[in-house]
Known about the structure:
The complex is a heterotrimer of chains A (291), B (220) and C (250).
Chain A lengths: L1 H40 L15 H32 L4 H14 L3 H14 L7 H25 L3 H9 L4 H30 L2 H4 L31 H10 L6 H35 L2
Helix pairs in contact in A: 1-10, 2-5, 2-7, 3-5, 4-5, 5-7, 6-7, 7-10, 9-10
Chain B lengths: L2 H34 L2 H32 L3 H33 L10 H23 L2 H31 L4 H33 L11
Helix pairs in contact in B: 1-2, 1-3, 1-4, 2-3, 3-6, 4-5, 4-6, 5-6
Chain C lengths: L2 E12 L2 E12 L3 E5 L6 H8 L9 E9 L2 E2 L6 H7 E4 L10 H11 L5 H14 L3 H4 L12 H13 L5 E5 L7 H14 L4 E5 L3 H7 L2 E6 L2 E7 H6 L4 H7 L5
Parallel strand pairs in C: 3-8, 3-9, 6-7, 7-8
Antiparallel strand pairs in C: 1-2, 1-4, 4-5, 9-10
Amino acid sequence: MGKIRNAKIADKIMTIVFYCIALLFLVLLLVLALYVIFKGFVDFKLEYLSFNRKGIGNQFFNTLYLVFLSLLISVPLGTLAGIYMSEYAKQGKITNFLRISIETLSSLPSIVVGLFGYLVFIVMTGARWNLMAGALAVSILSIPLITTTTVDAFKSLENGYKNGSLGLGATHWQTIYHVMLPACFPRIMTGIILAAGRGFGEAAALLYTSGMSTDINWSNWNLTAATCALNPFRPGETLSLLIWASRSEAVSANATQIANLSSAVLLIMVFTFSLGARMLSRGINKKAKGC
Amino acid sequence: MRNIFNEQLEQLNTDLIEMGTLIGQVIRMTVEALVDKDIEKAKKVIRFEDQIDRQEKTIENLCLKLLLQQQPVASDFTQISAALKMITDMERIGDQSADISQILISMAGQPYIKKLDHIQAMANETTRMVFKSIDAYVKKDLELAKEVIEQDDIVDSLFLTIKRELIDLINESTENGEQAADLLMIGKYFERIGDHATNIAEWVIYSITGKHDDIDVTIE
Amino acid sequence: MDSKIIINDLNLHYGAFQALKNISMDIKKNEITALIGPSGCGKSTFLKTLNRMNDLEENVKIDGSILLDGIDIYHDMDSILLRQKIGMVFQQPNPFPKSIYDNVAYGPRILGIRKKRELDQIVETSLKQAVIWDEVKDRLHKSALSLSGGQQQRICIARTLAVNPDVILMDEPTSALDPISTSKIEDLAVELKKNYTIVIVTHNMQQATRISDKTVFFLLGETIESGETHEIFSRPKDKRTEDYITGRFG
Lengths: 291, 220, 250
């Protein structure tokens, strides 16, 4: 009898512990978010959001554009690499080595990746700082994330889907494209959100690739011009770099407020993107399943 | 594997042999009652009828239970279905023996109107058939079973002979009428016992080979 | 009855292990042939040789011949084409996470059929053949995963029928289902054999006796006995067959 009572007490204690830990994380998140947002908007002036030298509008746009570019590169490459690893590669030492290499790539220090990017995408090509170089550098970090997520997603799929499709006379690729990929979609989306998050927050990798300045002329829509907003081969300071610059170089008077506001805006961007992507994913999934 | 089922099949076999042995005893007693005019034996035969009926019920219940619970196939199935059919014929033999004994009791005290050569021959032949059919079951002997089936012709022709003799007796004198009628009935009962013994032999063949002339289990 | 599939001296090795030994068999058209035997004796492996699903596994070596309507399926036929002629229903119902309509239309779409009217027709016909049209006709665009196990399995059968095969292979199709679904699918199989040839692997002796015309008994990768189902189950010739079907081993 005593043993059962002890077991029950231990059970109750551990339940409380788990709830406390969850509460801790929730509180942590709330405190962090609220603090940042509060600090960001406490001395708010509308001009801070403007799309010129006085405001953070351009950096905001650059951040979005950079994430977009890096996803453009890393999603196809990452997904295809993941499909290769899980569906085409033969089991063996080489595949295992490949897998470990990919996983390691993701945990490389971003400053190292940034310098690598500088070397290859800037120096060797003879270009100036540009967004594309930054996107490529970020991709080196985010492709492995997407690849690993894709591999896990495919491996966790029920065998029945693949067998069912092949049994009907579909080819391997048809099976992957029409059945397996759509079924993995939610999980792959998680990987994409993680990768995008990487892009939003990267600073060190962008230092020597996408540059610390931004000069956009919103009336110029000539794609090859250096001041065109949509030209990926122009330098583009992102919000994260702006934060760093404002706090370390502190040129203008209201640098602190700019930095705080940038932090708040960046945080809000990440939350919004995450929520939005999940909602989109659920919507697509529902349509596909026909629920 | 299926130990309980095996035990139940053993039980079925034992019960069937027991009932067969009892039937053998009963028919022998009936013939002795006939030949020796032994009324006590006749009464004994009638008393046995209850026991025979009860045994039939017991074995029938066991068979039905096994069919339901065990879903037998192959030789298990033939054994159980053969048993189910054999007990019916055995029970009928018991009934007919009792009927013969009943008539013998009513004929008590009267001398026989004729020598019973043919009836006795038929009774003996029938007795041999019954014993042989049970024996065939016990020994799983196909040849013995086939012999029983052939013996039925002998019994049938003996009955025709007896019938003619009795008709002659009636024509001789109407006083013979009542006993002649009784003797005819006795003859007929023995002939029926012969038929039942034949049936038992056919089911014995079925339980060994899975084949019975009247059964075809092919699917359309 | 004509032969639909003739198997001659089939041997299959997984690496060093021989899973199938000298299998020869004649599967007749428009009949249901049941494959029975203890677990791991090669029945499912054999079934998968008939539609070359074994090709997908590594280290498999096959020799011998399998002829479908006289054509060697390993040497003279494309495996994709083969799988459209020989369909398969699996033990666990495996509809795709798509709508019922999209599940059944999957095969035809893969074949290149795009016109909505044609697809509608094929979907309806297949669902009717699988005796599930009435149950789902008002919710074709709901997810197939929202159906019960028995219904899902019939959707899988409809899906297989939609590509118009000649032969349907069934690998223990009812072992995961309740008795009512099981009997629905058994009735379906008997109905389907009028137009298709069916080969079914089953652990259920009663199922084999209920629906199959021929039965083949497998043991340790060999065929021990084969013949008319009622013969095998009432008067088996080999003692091993008798012991297996009466449950004395397995």
